Amino acid sequence: MGVAETVRVDARSRSYDVVVGWGLLASLGARVHAVCKAENAFVVSDSNVAPLYLAACEASLTAAGLRVASHVFPAGEQHKRMGTFEQILEDMAGAGLTRDDVVIALGGGVVGDMAGFAAASYMRGIEVVQVPTTLLAMVDSSVGGKTAIDLSTGKNLVGAFLQPSLVVADVSLLATLDDEVFTDGMGEVVKHGVLADEELFDELAVHPLLPGTSDLAYLAHIVARNVAIKRDVVNADETERGLRQTLNLGHTLGHAIEAAHDFTLGHGHCVAAGLCCIARAAEALGWAEAGLSARIDRCVAAQGLPIDTEVAHQTLLVFATLDKKRHGDGVNVIVPTGISRCEIRRVSLAAFSHIIDLGCGTSPA
Questions:
Q1: Which SS3 state, helix, strand or coil, does residue 122 take?
Q2: DSSP H helical segments within 197-312, as ranges?
Q3: DSSP strand pairing (15-22 vs 3-10)
Q4: Contacts of 32 (CB under 8 A, 6+ apart)
Q5: Tally of domains within the chain
Q6: N or C: fewer beta carbons within 10 Å in the chain?
Q7: Which residues, in sequence order, are CB contacts of 171 under 8 Å at separation 6+?
Q8: CB 344 within 8 A of CB 295
Q9: Distance between CA atoms of 349 and 22, rounded to whole angstroms?
Q10: Domain boundary among 176, 194, 220
Q11: pTM score, whole prediction
């Protein structure tokens, strides 16, 4: 069944395993059968992933005795919208899925969000199994149960919490990623290091994880370590009322950068830039230890990720105020004060505007 390490998530609403390793896709059906009572499996994928892995996924599910149907939608964040969501639901109903059946999310973060939200909504909720195929999805979005779609005014504004029944992260699937997509995932990896693991951060600063690595054991180690970091936060705060907000480090500015680029720049690239910008502002305001922003800049740049943005400050402010992290007339900002030390600060919109001025478009690089 492949080489695997298991990270157990014990969220309040559901406990489940995140299985990390390589050569795991062939065993997907057996693993799904072991945790779900489903007779039918509905695979959601996109036009990039389906030609590569859908047939193997369906074959494994069928071999385990499941009847299989699928829906493939065009790849890209621009398709994470209501029209795609509606068509997935229509096809699920057309396939005769019941409350006892399971949705399989085969793809990156967009697929995971779409399939997860469809599972959360169909018949008021059925099971979902996440099979992430990008580094970003493996280390972040497939774990924790957040699902969502975008509106024209902002990213992830409509969604639900639905913990998966199982996550199968097969790092051998990363071999088919474009270099830019692989690098994009490193934005979340570095963020996790800044948030909770100084040893991981220092390791990445000296030995960046770059596209083309063939060391599957090292890849699996990095993925499993990131999953464990997120697991610890999700176990403590499943629905983002307190501690889990810290996982949004770099995201308030990152989402604004992403929206300003009309979602054509990768999420991880935007989070990396947002992380560096908030660190610069935090240091300028005396909230962070001296030298922190330069230290983060060096690690981020070593992964081939951006450390700043040239988006107009007023544009960033407008998009940030539309973000779901806004609370009334203020914004909750996750501030790094040191490596593996962060705090949540509630700031006014005027103060957040000042943060943008201090942190964005100021790097000499």
A1: helix
A2: 198-206, 216-236, 251-260, 267-284, 292-302
A3: antiparallel
A4: 38, 41, 61, 64, 66, 102, 104, 129, 166
A5: 2
A6: C
A7: 20, 21, 22, 138, 216, 219, 220, 223
A8: no
A9: 46
A10: 176
A11: 0.91
